[in-house]
Structures
1.
Amino acid sequence: MIYAQILAGGKGTRMGNVPMPKQFLTLAGKPILIHTVEKFVLESRFDAILVVCPADWLSHTQEIIRKYISDQRVHVVTGGNERNETLMKGINYLQQHYPRHDDDVIITHDAVRPFITQRIINDNIEAALVHPAVDTVVAAIDTIVQGTDDQASAIPVRANMYQGQTPQSFNIKALVTAYQKLTASQKASLSDSCKICLLAGQPVTLVRGESFNFKITTPYDLRVASALVEKRD
């Protein structure tokens, strides 16, 4: 079976003084989250589409999903305290409500990347059906400088560098197995779901993203997103 999980658990602290998490802010007349979910309901191969949100915003998320989305495959689930705990809570929901198969896959995507295309979704599905883990990336344009504070420690070869986006997609059985092997300190340090598989020695396959598949994180990003929607419309 093929599932989608929209990660809407962030608090949006870099968005500044706003009344709600960034995924619920309005973009062209409706919440950013809804723009994202609408892209996923267009894909008929999904058996279920989860929207995983903070517990404090569960009722609000359910309300806006009812208002804008009529697709019965969409379910709202409470997330965890951090990204990968949220991811696993979504998987736990699926394992409790749907039959399990060794070839089940999940396509996970940030709620605040509303410009994802059907091509990117399709490429993730096709790759996840044959590989344990898939990451969506774009080639790095700028030189990457590795360092801490004000000291550079390395400048990697730019041709080998990519910027990570989402979706990140997984064979569910392989992901759960890899996650269960991690120590508590490893789990606490993770900021990227594909690293779960890398730490377990599993390969991660890359698929091509798009520069416009960006994450709305700051007020500037929201202005850019508004301009893109206005130009498209």
2.
Amino acid sequence: MRVLAAMSGGVDSAVAAARAVAAGHDVTGVHLALSAKPGTLRTGSRGCCTIEDAGDARRVADMLGIPFYVWDFAERFTEDVVEDFVAEYAAGRTPNPCLTCNERIKFAALLDKAIALGFDAVCTGHYARLSVVDGRPELRRSADDGKDQSYVLATLRPDQLRHAMFPLGDSVKADVRAEAADRGLLVAEKPDSHDICFIPDGDTRAFLTRRLGERPGELVDDETGAVLGAHAGVHGFTVGQRHGLGLRVPAPDGRPRYVLSLEPVSGSVRVGGAERLAVREIVATRPTWPTGDQPAGEVECVAQVRAHGGTAPATASVVDGELRVRLTGELRGVAPGQAVVLYREDPAGDVVIGSGRIAMTR
């Protein structure tokens, strides 16, 4: 097959490309220039898509003996990922930019271009497994639970999964690094990227304040309605947050308070005890079905609300176009704007059966 290997400059995508070459595919490497300021250098594990990363990807491609190109997707990334991220926070929601990037950049813009150029598949370094059952693709959790990225791939459609390759799905991170070292790849010990790639200093609140300005409001006790302090904007908070609240008045029982909800119109941030974070039902919009079929009636599943962790047994159904997820147990700190991803337990690795964007919780 003709395979386009997306090469970020990190160890995972490097080994994925190397495995595609070893499997006998006709591989071409491509690095996506996503940063509006590509001259910015990486600092340890923060930042990505820099000139340094492009150089690392090119050196790996040279060692593998494959053609290599840099494609400028910065404008598309800014519009579809960065601006969406800012708008979601301004609306009192907490988006997952990695999920948005996979959906709109790597498996929409990139895959569309790859197919138009005659490639059969796009290969990435994601930790997830793909299988074909009765002619339909199934997206599964990876063998490395700690690195599993099926959650941030859950919005992909069947037609996109049919053109995807995830060579690392059956591997654990330690083995991937060891393989990179054995192959002599210079990125074998390169630190993984953490936090949000377009906020390299890790200060999300400061980034959003620069983009949105200050929007003063009140911190309110959710139970009594008492005003407990002031803040510079709801975009500085997320549901479940405990630290950095700036409360003037301690709780009567001395226990910590958490962010319970955000009201962007009034500017209120409502806070309360941990027990008030408990969620038993999730309503999500824009449901997607990677296997292609919307389940009929209620389906038993495991619901996940964060990229790593935040899982509970559940039953799910579609009502009036919305995904309704009723948790058998309970979850805490479920933030609107995040994704709820549904899994079917399977001996060969849990299968992603659906996902949706969380609109509200009960």
3.
Amino acid sequence: MSTIRVAVVGFGTMGKLYADILSEMEGVSLTAICSSSAESRLEAARLGALRFGSLDELIQEKIPVDAVVLALPTYLHKAYAVAAADKGLHIICEKPVALTTEDTEEMIEACRRNGVCLFVGHVLRFFPDYARMTERVSDGEIGPVITAHAKRFSLHPPSNSWFEDDTKSGGVLFDLMIHDIDYLHSLMGEAESVYAVIRKSPGVQYAAAVLRFENGTVANLEAMWGYAGPFTSSLGVTGKDGMLRADNEAYKLAVSRGAVAAHSQRNEGVAIPQGEPADDPYRLELEHFIECIRTGAEPIVTARDAGRAVATACAALESAWLGRPIKPQRLRQSTSALHVKD
């Protein structure tokens, strides 16, 4: 097995998580951590990686790496992805891929031009209960899907963080709701229209959206920063013959027919949503992307999928501003299936 050499760029919550996982993965060398934080120096030494103050420093030193993991604030994704692609590096980018469809297309085009892969961490696809839901919907277990309802509530980000600036983070729509937007696209296909509302007050941001898909399915989505309880997420999908429900508090996929079956719940209160320890979705995601780099296989989440989620989130923001349904923009056809070397 060839060793894939990886650098993690950014060392916040997700950068630390990715670095820990990569340092333990078979067939992977955590070669470098790129961050200006004092903590990153100590952690790089602990993990046996080199430490650089920036991606530019890594590139200037000509350290041999095959891929970079971009665990940076969203507004920085495009500039770093284009710079990495121009140096021939594969890219694993934290979600959302960007804040506009134009930036997304520039990132994809840079990767196509340089013959490298672009993967985006829509980790919900790798949660075992959501993966099982996808299989059961595809198998027709509940018949044609009629409606879906997704909920994702979390603590509010620190008031002094970049998340607080919607021009840098996209707000709760791009940070939380985009998880469910991407997943529902994977089940239902293209969204025909989106109608959304956003409400803000000190320490709270709430968004609700109704997505109407081209296949006729209607989905209701909710996302909230500033939730008083523990992190909460759930998704219910209803078809002609039954319902499937995934719930982070239950840690299982519940199936019911007729009357809704009750199931036990327990509060987890984790900062980063997790699945069962044996099926860590972040590890599954990274292992999948690394294997795609190694083999050229098509990933579960394509760059076009990530761009489609951005387009729908942008339409939701526009809808909230204008107070009417908006049709999501389509990415250019040239951006399809750009996940392997030419």
